[in-house]
Each structure stands twice: as C-alpha cells, then as structure tokens.
Please model this.
Amino acid sequence: MEKTIKGSNRPDRSPGDSYEEIIAGDVVPAPDFYAEGPTPDVGTEAIAASRYYDPAFLQQELDHVFSRVWQWACREEDIPESGDHVVFDLGGYSWIIVRTEDGGVKALSNACPHRGRQIVEEDGNQSRFRCPYHGLQWELDGSLRHNPFGWDMPQWDECGANLPEAKVAFWGGFVFINMDPDAPPLEEVLSPIPEHFERYDLAGRYKAAHVIKKIRANWKATCEAFMESHHVVGTHPQALSMTGDLNTQYDIWSDYVGRQFTAQGVQSPNIDRELSNEEILGITAFNQHNADPDSVGALPEGMSARAFSAYSSRQMLEAATGHDFSEAGDAEMIDSLLYHVFPNLAFWAGMTQNIVYRFRPNGLDPESALMDILILRPCPKDGPRPDPVPIRYLDFDEPVMLAAGEIGEALAEVYDQDVENLPWVQKGLHNLPAGVAFTSYMEARLRRHHQMLDQFIGES
Ligand code: FES
Ligand SMILES: [Fe+2]
Model:
C-alpha cells in the first residue's frame, strides 16, 4: 500500500516538511518504527495552574501516583558487588536498592520499623544494615538479623521487623522498583520501548555521565520542559539553524508511553531564509561533536548537511568504539529521539549516545525538583567495560556547565538555557487564573500526562 506522508499539507501540522518527509530523504534509512505513530485527540481544555504549586496536590501525586508506578532507581552497574547499595528517594519515600549475597537485587524500605529512623543515609557498601538509633540489624535481603531489645517487643513475632520490600524488575541495565504489589508488569508498561530499543542495547552501554540538578520549579513543569521541541525558537536560538523544531513528530503510543522525534542537520521552519548546506553543517558539527564550525571540511558534491553530519557521526563512533554502524540510519545517528514514560522518565533512542532523564519532586516541596541527566555510551568493542561515573550533584545555583567535561559544552549550554526558564515558569504559574493552555498537537502529550495523573488519583 502506498504510504501517505503527512505534515506540510495538513492544517494541523507545522509548515515545512514533516519528520517523515525529512527521513524519507535519508541516505541510510531509519527503521520502520520511526514512522508517525498514534495521535489521539486529547482535547484542548486549560489545566489548573495550582497543580504546579499546591502542596496538597503533590501529596496526592505521591500517595496515588508515585506509589503505584515503575521508577528506575539506579543502574545495575551502580551496584555490581554484594552489599553495594543506592538510596533512592522520591518525595517522602526512601528505598535501599541493594545487591544481595546471591547476586540478586532487592528494594528495601529505608525506614526502621521501630521508630522510623532512616536506616541508610547514602550510597555505599555494607555487609549488613544497622539502624543507628537503637541498633536493630538486618541481613542484605532485609531479614532481621539482630534485635537488641527483642525481649521488650512482644508484638513482633520472628519476622515482624523484616524490612518491607518493593517489587523489582529490570530493563536496559536499569533497576526499576514499584511500591504497588498489584502493579502491572514493567514490560507491559514500557511497551513498545523494549522492542524499539533492541537496536540500541542500553543494558550493554555504560554510564558516561550522571548529573542530579536541583531546580526551582515543580517536577511537572521541569519534566514538561523536555516534552516538546518548539521552545527552541525562544530558549535555544543557537540551535535553530540545525533543528527541525516545529516539524517534530509527537506520538502517543499508550497511556504510559509517548515520544518526540526531532530532525537535526536541517534548518528550522522558524528561519525565513534558506540556509546553505555549509551553514547548517557548521552549526550541526558544533552541537553534535563540539567541533569548531570553521574546521569542518567542505561538503562532498551533492551531499546534504544532514547526510554528511550522519556520515561523519558514524565515522567518529566507529573510530571510538570499534563497532560497525554502517546499518545505522541517518536519523539514528543524529536526531533527537526521545521516549517518555509516565509520569517522569525519559529515554533517548539512537546509536551515538542515549540520554536518560528522571524528574522527581525535591522532597515534599511542590516548588522544586530534582532532575537526573544520565548519558549512556557504547562500550569499546575490545577492552574492558568502562566504570560508571560517580554522580555529580548540582545545587540550585550551580550551572550544568560544571558537568561539561562529562556531557559536552554544547549540551550543557542547552540544559542551562532550559533551567534558566524554570523558576520564571514557576513564578508565573502563581499568576495564571485562566490556567495553563497547552497547544493541540505539539503539547498533546503534556495534556495526556495530566489526564493520567487525574486517572490515577481518581482511581484511588
Ligand atoms: S528507630 Fe531504629 S532501632 Fe529504634
Ligand atoms: Fe530545551
């Protein structure tokens, strides 16, 4: 059947070529699943701004949403040895993610069943857990090891003081946990991501960057800053010459999963003059590889900036890793390919590097958030797997540029531009009685996100 290409000739899409039209011209084609996916009509009604600052709403989110959804808590590579553990905090919740003696992974409640003291304060390695308050002790699997005041606790039978567990599952090298014993399986929630990401082997990649940035804005406002690409014209003007921002493709695959595909190496429809391929190539080279635009060689005869950029990315990745990327589509080499998982996780597809986000409330404060930025890179074909980098914690006023060594200067600048907006968004939300007005197509996933929050809260 002949394929209908959507986009430029549709009144509900941006002027300019659609993403499908752009990738249809690629030298090495993208996989079939890059074609436009489902775009259900989710309405256009305004969203109450108080959802972004009301402490009672955050408490509802914690009680009825975050307590029932799958969350990645760490990478498996973060806890390779018996006793290695990570503290995973989410709102008021805290969990110990630990490698047990049998090589498995457990998620244990990080609150002492006696009088509640947090048992483990930071990541590390221990052969057992011990509450610093009155000295209860547990084995790595959460079973009670020693109770110094057992004679005075007749209400606890033998295992009454075992640490409660959350469900644990694995995908892509990540350890996911879920506090709800009746939660649907992780694979079901992530679908179709495991299938689409088979080509990218996230489990086989190593953690080359991990930043946790404190941001003065609600977790949803922060997450939503990374759920659409049309803020490039206002926020990242340096990228307009190489980014198909307005012709981004937005798909809603399921209640949980949506995605946005943004072409790189093409000019934005927001630019009203036609750029030369050389102009596009120069800015693409800087943003993709931190290369000096003047140092980029001349384009081969008849080759577009997009095709050459994908070609040179492929060459560089092959040289760096020793792997063969000749079958990797141009889109897989250079485009922004971002999948979101309700309510707060995101994974970049693609060959070169996979950025991963996690957006959490900062404790119980509805007006600040923690944003994790991870970068996964392919391991070299020969040689040992690189160790995962330690986490770099950035306070409210510390720029992401401090992590430029791990994530690259161009990307760090982009994040700092995003972060710069957010306290002003948060302030403005207090002054918006008509509510937040999402666009119909480009921000449909943001609206769907709120509808899902309401669904979870309503069900409870
Ligand atoms: S609070 Fe932990 S032993 Fe008392
Ligand atoms: Fe941005």
In short: The chain has twelve helices and 18 strands. The CA atoms of residues 207 and 388 lie 5 Å apart. The longest helix spans residues 409-429. The chain has two domains: 19-48+192-459, 71-182.
